[in-house]
Amino acid sequence: LARYDHISGCAGSKLIVQGGLIDDFSEKNKRRLRSVVEVFDPYSELWAQKPVHGDSPAPGVYLSASTSIHNGLYTFGGSDGKNFFNTLHRLDTNTLRWSQLSPQNADGAPMPKWACGMVSFKDSLLVIGGNRPRAGGEWTDELHVYKISEGVWSCPATTGERPPVCADLTFTAVSDKRAVLFGGHNGSQEGFTNNVFIIDFSTMNWSKLKKTGGGTWPEERANHAACCLNHGQQFPQLLVTGGLDRCFKPLSDVWILDTEIGKWRKIGILKPRAGHSLTVLQIGPDLTEVVEFGGTPGQWIGNFEKQCKVADTAILQFRLVETSDQSQWELLSVSDNKQRGSHQRIIEKFRFAVESWQQSTCNKEITQLQSEKRRVGELEEEKEKVKMELQHVQARANVLQQRLDEVERREHDNLVVQEQAIAAEQRGPSWEVNDDELEVTEEELGCGGWAKVKVAKLKVAAKCLHSQLVYDYHRRIFRREMDVAARVCHPNLLRFLGARLEGGMTILTELMPTSLRALVNRHPQQHLPLNQFLSIAIDVANALNYLHNMTPYPIIHRDLSSANVLLRPSSDGGWIAKVSDYGTANFQNLLRTGNPGNPVYTAPESRDPALQTPKMDIYSFGILLVEMYTCEFPAPEHRDELMESIDNPAILHLIRQCLNEGKDRRPSAGQLLELLQAIQ
């Protein structure tokens, strides 16, 4: 997007841009652009929008100060056209996640302002100058340091000749110990400056670069752009382009300042612009690329939103030229929006590297050998790049295949749920009420053409919270059970009828005459008939399959046991089973507690909420099968002995699958139904 007065930084070998003034400065568009950054790939010379996350700066902020430390792009201040800010934000350039820094001493922060300068050194940020929002504007020379590791602002004492009040300046670190402040203005036409001030971080001493009579010097300017060539290494030099002159017209000149000897050189002319950005992409010790982006190319009209904006992207290539008496950076080429292939770019960089090397040696044989070695290295890099791309494609294909398998599994499980629901209805509708549970009185409420409406009494089960359990924790669990029970509806889940919240908390459900635990206790050391065993197991598996396929998130019961499987006799002499008790059940994305339910039935991974999945219910189901088949309580110390007594190989194999220590190797509830039906 065309923009100016934005921020920019590096993400590896790419350029990141956000914020600034754009053509569509509506609130809706500002909020939309708050959630993305624009990324420029210098190899393909293409721009792309990437989503960002976290606590990003306010929508539509411009004239912020920014600087980079390792993988972090820090921003300070700025304005959205209505408000001014003094907040600090950090963008992780690896994950593209924003975070707002929270100082320990917020009252020690700089005033809300824009158009200030900021550099980084060691573990600190240094902010200087800017303009604060008062009538007519007020320029400042305040200097603050923010210690990142401690989260503390401070105002350090400085020595030497300190810069005067100024805004729209550039403040650029040229090494780990020094930074250069250049240009800016104080709000008046006469207030434009071309002064150079250098600060030493170790001593906090300012020094002003003196203008010599015979040397060239850039004219006064503000809202220009600057960067350091070869930061922190030998021969660091300051690059300055563009800006506004005293008449508020954009400049087109390009200057380099040798920070060691204090000498300026004018090295070229670019398109005139102001409010743009310069970002260094270091290629090698002798070759550097600088990306110039955005800005405004026209006369300043005094209206930020209506000011002309551009999205022009220029790539400036510099080479370090060493002679016997000096070393300096020379501008090799300027690429302005030309779509060159990455192969061509590699060849150019290779050619420049060879030319640079040839200037420092006259040995032709050594030059040719070095050239071949570099070419082989480039081919190896290309080979590794292709290999990595193939691996990425294969990994992506594997992910897509896994997603496809998951979708097919869910569709299959849903089909099984429907088929089993039909089968359950054929055995007896889940809504049928037994005669001994219903008492119809003679009190008549109304009469129609088809029937009379009378008052009736229905026997229900009432689960009442113990009077001594009065803490909010117990009430939250009780309410969660009601919430889960009210959301589900399946023939093999205990039907929820209502609840009482005032006084003693009570849940009302349909009445089931007995439980699986009571049934197995009536047949100690005996086998349940196989048809009853399979009927109950299939009903429980149906209930789990329904819960595990809930959308958008599966429900995990987390307390499956024989006490929570309730039974009612069926018309065919068997049993209808229904799973009850949702006190520990929860949606998978809301799990926060470990070790839920009866420890006899819980899976090994239940201690860690992050590892809890529907497969922990499958583990509990396996323990339940052991208890059903042997009619013995499946205490852990006797479990192996009980399993040895199971004489049905198919059932024993199914149990071993359910009790697999690796949760991903356990079958799903839908697969359980298929295995049980195969045994049946």
TrEMBL record:
GO BP annotation list: necroptotic signaling pathway
SUPFAM superfamilies in the record: Kelch motif (SSF117281), Protein kinase-like (PK-like) (SSF56112)
Domain Protein kinase: 439-680
MF terms in GO: ATP binding; protein kinase activity
Coiled coil (UniProt feature): 362-410
UniProt KW keywords: ATP-binding, Coiled coil, Kelch repeat, Kinase, Nucleotide-binding, Transferase
Entry-linked PROSITE patterns: PROTEIN_KINASE_DOM, PROTEIN_KINASE_TYR
Listed InterPro entries: Kelch-typ_b-propeller (IPR015915), Kelch_1 (IPR006652), Kinase-like_dom_sf (IPR011009), Prot_kinase_dom (IPR000719), Ser-Thr/Tyr_kinase_cat_dom (IPR001245), Ser/Thr_Kinases-Pseudokinases (IPR051681), Tyr_kinase_AS (IPR008266)
Pfam families according to UniProt: Kelch_KLHDC2_KLHL20_DRC7, PK_Tyr_Ser-Thr
PANTHER family referenced in this protein's UniProt entry, alphabetically: MIXED LINEAGE KINASE DOMAIN-LIKE PROTEIN, SERINE/THREONINE-PROTEIN KINASE TNNI3K-RELATED
Name this protein carries in UniProt: Probable tyrosine-protein kinase DDB_G0283397
